[in-house]
Every structure is written in C-alpha cells, then in structure tokens.
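Much of our argument rests on the idea that a fold can be written as discrete symbols. Part of our work consisted of pairing the sequence of a single chain with a tokenised description of its backbone. No coordinates are needed to read the tokens, only the vocabulary itself. The record that follows shows the chain in one-letter code together with its fold in token form.
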Amino acid sequence: MNMNPRTTQKLAFAFFLLATLLIIVPVGLIVVVIIQKGLPAISWEFLTSVPKKGMRAGGIFPAIIGTLYLVSGAILFALPIGLFSAIYLSEYAKDNYMNRIIKLSIVNLAGVPSVVYGLFGLALFVDFFKFGVSILAGSLTLGIMILPIIITASREALEAVPSSFREVSLSLGASKWQTIRHIVLPNSISGIITGTILGIGRAAGETAPILFTVAAFYIPKLPHSIFDQVMALPYHLYVISTQVPNVSEQIRYGTALVLIGMVLLMNLAAIIIRYQFRKKKKW
C-alpha cells in the first residue's frame, strides 16, 4: 500500500517535532526549576562575599573567580595548540593511514570520560611535573580535555573553505602559509570559535578533573598565584549538595543558577564575536 506523499511528509514533520520536543522540554523544565528556586538567593552579597558558617551562609565569590581562572587558563592553553594541530591535519598532513588513525583518535578522545582526564592530570601535572594541586595543573588538565573538541571543530571549519580560494591565492604567487593566514583562517574563524564555545561549556561545568588537580573544599580567599588551590563552582555545588548538611535549598540552586549564567554569558560573548566574523565571510 502506497502512502500519499503529503501524508508521509506530515508524519515525518510530526516525528521530527516530537523528537525535538523530547530534547527541549526536559532541558527547559530544568532551567525553569533552577531559576525559580535559585533566583531568590541571588544578591550582590551572594555574588561578592566569601562563604561563611561552614558554607551555609555568605556568598560564592571565591568559587566564581576560581572558575573564571580555570576556564581562561584552559582556553589559553588549548586554543593555540588545537588551532595549530587543526591547521597541520587539514592543510599539511598527507592523506595516509597514519594520519587517518590520528584523526580518528582525536575524535574518540572527545568522548573519554572526564574522570579519566582528571586521573591523567593528577599523574602528569600534579605528581610528575610537581605543579601540585594548583590552578596551573587544573587549567592544563581542562585544556587537554577540551583539546579534541577544538581540534575537531577547527579542522572541519578549515576543510569547509572552498579549495578554489586556495588555488586562486597560490596562483597569484602567495606561499602556502600566506594562503592559510590570509585566506583560509579568516574564512573559517566562525567555525573555530564554535569549537571554542563548546570547549568553554565543557570546561566550566566539569567536576572530576578539577577534583583531582585544583579544587579545594573550602578556601574563603582569593588565589595569589597559579600554584594556589581555588574553589570552583562545579565542585562547590557538589560539596554543598552532598557533603555539608543543613545548607539552604536557595543557596544550592542559586549556585547552580550562577554557574549556568556564567556559561551562558561566556558563550554569548563568543557567539557575538563569531557573528562579527561571519558577516565578513565571502561565501
């Protein structure tokens, strides 16, 4: 029995709509609940003061600053290395068996559980390089964790630039590096920033890597160097939710709301930058 094409199309649209709603509705409900229960806790004092009374009162300012330090350090480490690696794999590496294995391995590394990266950072940066439990060790661990995401997104953005752009540039006498720098990179920057956005989101919300390498249970002060421990919002949220009794529900949900808000603000800033570059694209 042949089904009417219009009926088939409507059924397909209904199926896709249902699949989309199954993703959007639960996430939307989670955000609504967090906003509803966490918004009463948000105040200037909550955002700018240190925890008090064993983290049952006061604010989360040290955890906010610690999170910003860790995310900034991770991006400063991962973005240049990830971009240069993507340029090599996309523009210089030959299409042979070894390079295909490398590309596949990078994609697979993006799916490795974060706790594995935490143990790796503990063994390499904390113990082997003797950085200790510090901002430096935590940032490098987070940087390695988001490196596969940045490499993969950047490589796909570079490969999406039409080959005719490269051919015209080379035919006019430009070197390969000049072509990459002045033609390929400007036309792929929006995709590179997309990978950076994904990396920021993952780095800001992870608990396991910083648990092994940097996060402190309770330090009511700001760090003075990259070799200090810090509080961080993901771990702080875990601590006050599971390890500290009699913490107000508003404080827990308020901390979660601040973490979500920070990630959204960092992503928004990156999206605005990406939009400005995308307007300059010539294709």
User: Anything to note?
Assistant: Strands lie at 51-52, 57-58. The CA atoms of residues 7 and 13 lie 10 Å apart. The chain has a mean pLDDT of 89.
